[in-house]
Amino acid sequence: MIKRKIIIGTRGSKLALWQAEWVKSYLVQKFTDLSVELKIIKTKGDRILDVALAKVGGKGLFVKEIEQSLADSSIDIAVHSMKDMPADLHDGLCIGAIPERENPRDVLISGKGLLLSQLPEGALVGTSSLRRIAQIKRIRPDLVIAPLRGNLDTRINKLEMGEIDAIILAAAGVKRLGLEKIITEYLNEDTMLPAVGQGALCIEIRKDDHDISGFINEMNHFVTRAVVLGERAFLKRIEGGCQVPIAGYGKVENDIFIIRGLVADPDGKTIITDTQRGSLESSESIGAALADRLISMGAKRLLDNLNVL
Predict the structure, then answer these.
(1) Angle subtended by helix axes 152-160 and 14-30, to nearest 10
(2) Close Cβ partners of 86 (under 8 Å, ≥ 6 residues apart)
(3) 211 catalytic per annotation
(4) Domain 221-309 in CATH 3.30.160.40
(5) Regarding the domain delimited by 1-99+200-220, which CATH topology (the fold level of the hierarchy) does it fall under?
(6) Start-to-end C-alpha separation, the chain
(7) How many secondary structure helices (H) and strands (E) does the chain include?
(8) What is the pLDDT confidence band of residue 62, given thresholds at 50, 70 and 90?
């Protein structure tokens, strides 16, 4: 029997490589006749590090080049962080699998071990996420936001060098790289509502590639997939990109799907938020209904105003 080779496309950061290696490990253990290789692809988001993401372009900054390689059949599977995925995928591609989600929350890491509530007035908090900036300013308008780009190591190094007082990161990336011990505080959803898809992986494939679909199908985690697709339905209906502060987080409690969404202006002075509940099987329609609810509360006007700026 000829050994089949599969090529996984990924970004080159430590976290992206961890994620791709995790998928590779699953495949080679489950299908011993497979040869699996990683192909590192540099994205626009990786190349432009001196400009805030919101000024570089919309969602897709970390996936477009990888998606193009997948569409061109240069790679067979693309592994992304789900929170980087735009609402609309490249033509001919689909989400093949969503494995079980890691902790979706954001975390604070501070140089002196201080909680967010304990940081002194004027403390420098590093982040370039408009979603995080708006929510920080809502509860701590006295803090100063320091623009922060680069991989996890770069951000942590700036903190250790004393250039900033604290940073906010996704818990999932910190945990996956084995750095959980440096986390100062897990931020609850009332303080910092997570990004759509945060903590989940996206294993993207070509729609017509049934062989690859068969290999990765069992990587799907039913609850995670349903919850994340509900969040993404919210994102698609609200028409959100990187230029505007949008958050969307779903969970299951007592067999009920609960999704909370948030749209804000960048200074956190205007926050529009609401929650919808229903059956997990209807997660996508519930996510879309949440978006409609926020739009009726003024989210669309807020987003249109921000996109004009």
Answers:
(1) 140
(2) 58, 59, 60, 63, 241
(3) no
(4) yes
(5) D-Maltodextrin-Binding Protein; domain 2 (3.40.190)
(6) 59
(7) 11, 13
(8) confident
Give the pLDDT mean for 253-264.
96
Bridge-based pairing of strands 201-206 and 185-187 is unpaired
Express as a percent the part of the chain with pLDDT over 90: 78
Residue 276: both structure tokens together: 């919808």
Task: Work out the average pLDDT over 250-272.
Answer: 95
Per-residue confidence (pLDDT) for residue 151, from 0 to 100: 77
CATH code assigned to 106-187: 3.40.190.10
Residue with tokens 């002196």: 112
What are the C-alpha distances in Å from 208 to residues 140, 195, 212?
Answer: 49, 30, 9
Contact indicator for 294, 272 with CB cutoff of 8 Å: yes
Distance CA 188, CA 308 (A): 32
Percent of the chain with pLDDT over 70: 92
From the list 33, 50, 72, 84, the catalytic residue is 84
Asked if the model's pLDDT at residue 2 lies above 60, the reply is no
Residue 153's pLDDT is 80
Among the residue ranges 141-155, 223-237, 272-286, the one predicted with the least confidence is: 141-155
Q: Which residues of 177-196 are buried (b: 16+ CB within 10 A; e: fewer)?
A: bebeeeebbebeeebbbbbb
Which amino acid is residue 184, in one-letter code?
T
Rg (CA), the chain: 19
